[in-house]
Amino acid sequence: MKIALAADHGGYELKEVVKTHLQQNGIELLDLGCFAGDSVDYPNYGKACGEAVMNGEADSGIVICGTGIGISIAANKVKGIRCALCTSLFMAEMARKHNNANVLALGGRILEPDLALGIVDVYLTTEFEGGRHQRRVDLIDSI
Ligand code: RB5
């Protein structure tokens, strides 16, 4: 499994924490930046991550800004992306089981690192349930 990671300056520090965690777990990464704490524009990073997932460069993505809001909105503008902003383990579980999310969004100024890594682990290890949820995901894709 290859994960695309992208963050603005508000998510940069947490991106580095997530990156180290994934590397320690042997997960292949595509780091799309940013690469320092200088101010950048989150839409560019949400777009880059969404496109990397949709063109097959990565199997799934994680995007991070200060709140997770702006970068999730940007990622969701890429056709086919279902980006879920999660602040709890339960949200991460449901984002996969019910919504078949293909990008996870986190808030670097919202989450303690331990909770963020827990959310990442749940997101990456939970399967989509399909069934009635597939119909709803298909409806989203048809919008
Ligand atoms: C940048 O200051 C901040 O607006 C951004 O990281 C994010 O929180 C936007 O939604």
Structure description:
The chain is α/β, with parallel strands linked by helices. It has a single domain (2-142), classed as Ribose 5-phosphate Isomerase B, Chain: A, CATH 3.40.1400. The protein has six helices and five strands. It has helices at 12-24, 42-54, 69-75, 89-97, 113-125, 132-141, and strands spanning 2-7, 28-31, 60-65, 83-85, 103-107. A five-stranded parallel beta sheet has the order 2-1-3-5-4, sandwiched between helices. Helix 1 (12-24) crosses helix 5 (113-125) and helix 2 (42-54) crosses helix 3. It starts with a strand and ends with a helix. The model has no long low-confidence stretch (mean pLDDT 98). The site of D-ribose has 8 residues, from helix 3.
Features:
143 residues, 17% strand, binds D-ribose, alpha/beta, 6 helices, Ribose 5-phosphate Isomerase B, Chain: A, 5-stranded parallel beta sheet, globular
